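Work Package 3 (structural annotation) set out to generate three-dimensional models for the target panel prioritized at the project kickoff. During this period the team completed the workflow that converts sequence records into discrete structure tokens, so that structures can be stored uniformly alongside our sequence database. As a representative example, we reproduce one entry of 124 residues exactly as it appears in the project archive.
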Amino acid sequence: MIFGKYINRYYLKYAPHLLVGLLALWTVDYLQLVIPELYQMVINGMNQGYVVVDGVQQTFDMTFLLDKICMPMLVVAIAIVFGRFLWRVGIRDSTVRTWSIRHILLMDSTPRIRASKNCMKPQP
């Protein structure tokens, strides 16, 4: 059972880690949709010589390429790297912590066997 009265308190305890990880995951997913839009502007600019941005036709030159495409792409790439780090640490950290706690709880419910010189007896 993943959800039970004993384990739910640990999910609540590590909920901030899990929520940060989920928020970072959704942010990374959104930012990965921005990259193809920037590539589309590059392809349209190379083919037509101009790019339509927000309904305004702009010439495709080096300043436009650097200011409107390369810099946003660099910012998005850095944000994706940072976001991937956050969601891996957030989700994985909270999962590992709750899993180890779940394992400890399950191991505590099974009888332990204590080794003695002559025989194996269940520990009280």
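The mean pLDDT is 80.
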